[in-house]
Amino acid sequence: MTNYTKTTNFLAKDSLPSSDTAKIIRGSEFDTEFNNLVIAVASKANLASPALTGVPTAPTAGTSTNTTQLATTAFVQSKVGTLGTMATQNADAVNISGGSVVGITDVIVADGGTGVSTLPSKAVVIGEGTSAVSSVAPGTSGNVLTSNGTVWASTANTTITATTGTLPYYGARGFGYFNGSALSVGTGSKNFASVAKIATGIFRVTFTTAMPDTNYVVVAMADNSANAVSRGAMITSAGNKTTTTFDINTEERLGGMSTDDVLMNWVVYQ
Q1: Residue 265 region by backbone torsions, left for phi larger than 0, else alpha for psi between -120 and 50, else beta
Q2: Lowest mean pLDDT, pick from 45-54, 58-67, 82-91, 101-110
Q3: Each residue of 96-121: b (16+ CB within 10 Å) or e?
Q4: Residue 100's pLDDT is what?
Q5: Among residues 177, 176, 179, which one has the least CA distance to residue 227?
Q6: CB 247 within 8 A of CB 204
Q7: Which of 46, 76, 87, 247 has a 20 to 30 Å separation from 7 between CA atoms?
Q8: Is 49's pLDDT higher than 90?
Q9: pLDDT band at 234 (very low <50, low <70, confident <90, very high)
Q10: What pLDDT sits at residue 230?
Q11: In the structure, what pLDDT confidence band is assigned to residue 243 with cuts at 50, 70 and 90?
Q12: Is 224 in a helix, a strand, or coil?
């Protein structure tokens, strides 16, 4: 920007004698001064949206300044230096919305992390106290997560054995009920596909899934249905066992093979 400098000293003319021609103010002098003013004004920055060039400077405000005045690069540098570490920041002002956090090690468990960088795909995460977490892979299809009281492992789903002593125990292989007259499989029956009448009071039960062998026991109970309230029935035998079927024989309380109007329930153990 150009500063205005006077060319003519008009005040000095006042002390000159009237006969001195230099006392006269001439038009050329006015013209020179106005031209200087025009040049100076034209090179000044506008108040609104000035387009500054070069390296403009300004006074540097103190770091505590919070006004609308211009901030210099020196002010910004000093202000950044007062921010301190992440621990001193307002938690509400720290907002990581994307990208990656680099330059750090795995966050330990005590600080809310896992202590590891990666985990196996589809693995179950196991807590390890204050140490880094561990994991158990799924293993073979059908495996279950088991514990030996100390660690977890993915193991095959095997036969359940007794928790104390050496004597094993086994669960039921199937259970159900049917109406001897209607020969309908009862709702909620398990491993019980169908029942067929072989003869009076004799019924053949078919498994949904075959037994591994014929070394199984049938525990059954019979009772009269609503259509035969004056008569009861009982199981006399469960024989002709195969891996896919077994027969149930029923008898009335007073002797003789029962009619078909009887309700039967059974459980198979092995």
Answers
A1: beta
A2: 82-91
A3: eeeeeeeeeeeeebeeeebbeeeeee
A4: 73
A5: 179
A6: yes
A7: 46
A8: no
A9: low
A10: 46
A11: very high
A12: strand
How far apart (Å, rounded) are the C-alpha atoms in residues 197 and 59? Answer: 109
Under a CB-based contact definition with an 8 Å cutoff, are residues 40 and 4 in contact? yes
CA dihedral 142, 143, 144, 147 (to 10 degrees): 170
Whether the pLDDT of residue 161 is over 60: the answer is no
Q: Are 219 and 176 in contact (CB under 8 A)?
A: no
Range list of H helices, the chain: 10-13, 27-42, 73-80
Q: Does the pLDDT at position 96 exceed 80?
A: no
Place of tokens 């021609």: 21
**Torsion sign (Cα): 181, 184, 188, 194:** positive
For residue 89, the model assigns a pLDDT of: 62
Amino acid at 149: G
Q: Which tokens hold the place of 22? A: 């230099």
78 by Cβ neighbours in 10 Å (0-12 / 13-18 / 19+) ranks as middle
Looking at residue 242, its pLDDT comes to: 92
Q: Which of 250, 170, 241 is nearest to 206 (CA)?
A: 241
Residue 250 in contact with residue 222, Cβ under 8 Å? yes
> For the chain, which domains are there?
107-157 (no CATH), 172-269 (2.60.40)
Q: CA separation (Å) from 115 to 29, 45, 105, 109, 129? A: 86, 60, 9, 6, 11
Average pLDDT of the segment spanning 147-152: 87
The label of the residue with tokens 């009071």 reads 201
